[in-house]
Amino acid sequence: MLTNKVALVTGAGQGIGLEICKKLASADARVVLNDLDPTLANRAAAEITNAGGICISVAGDSGDMKVIQQMVETAVISYGHLDIVIANAGITLFGDFFTYTEEAFLKVMQVNLSGTFFLAQAAATQMRQQKEGGSLLFMSSVTGHQAHKNLAAYGMSKAAIEMLAKNLVIELSEFRISVNCIAPGATATERTLEDKDYEKTWSRITPMGRSASVADIASAALFLVSDDAKHITGQSLIIDGGWTTVSPSPY
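User: That's the sequence. What structure does it adopt?
Assistant: C-alpha cells below.
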C-alpha cells in the first residue's frame, strides 16, 4: 500500500500513464495527474476520483519548465509533500534518418529528455528538502535497447534516459531517493491500436504470444515505486514479452 504517499505522473490522460495513476490511487496514494490535453487530464482525474481514488489534474506540456514547477508545487500545496514521480510523458516521431528534420528532433528531445531531466531535478530538490526519501521512475523503451527502423531519434532519447537514471544514483542515493526505468515493448493503447494490424503483428513476433497490456506496464511501475523496491536503484526493467531477446522486425 502507498497510504499517505503523494505521486505525480506525467502524460497520464490515457494509456499507460492513466493505468499507472489508477493503480497508484487503488494503493491509496494521492495522485497528481498531468497531460498536455486539458480535456484528457480532467476526464482522467474525474474517472479516478469517481472510482474512490484521490486525484487532481494539472494540464500542460511536461517539457516546459514552468509546467514542471507548477506540477511539483501543486503536489506540495495540495497534499503537503511529494514522494513519487513518474516521468511517463513522451512523444514518438517516426522518420527516415536521411530526411529527419531538426524540428522533429528537437521536439523529441525536449519532451523525452529535457522533460524527464528537469522534472527529476525539481522533484528531487523537493524530496531532498523533505528529508524522507522518495522514488523517481522514468519511461524508457525497448527501442533504447534494440534498433528499430525510423526511430533513430526516439531510440536515442530513450537510451539517454536510462543513462540518466544510472548517473542519478550517484547524485540522489545519499538522500534515499531511488531512480529506475521501465522499458515497455509493444503495448496495446488507444494510440497504438489506431493501427488495425498492431496486435496481430506484435502477437506474431513476441515470444509470449501477445503485446503488453497497459496493466502489465503499470504493475511493474507500481512495484518499483513501492517500499518493496526501496533497495532497487539505477536499474532498467524491460517489459516486452521477450521481444528484445529475439528482436524480429515488425516490418
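The helical segments are 15-26, 38-50, 65-79, 102-130, 152-172, 198-205, 214-224, 243-246.
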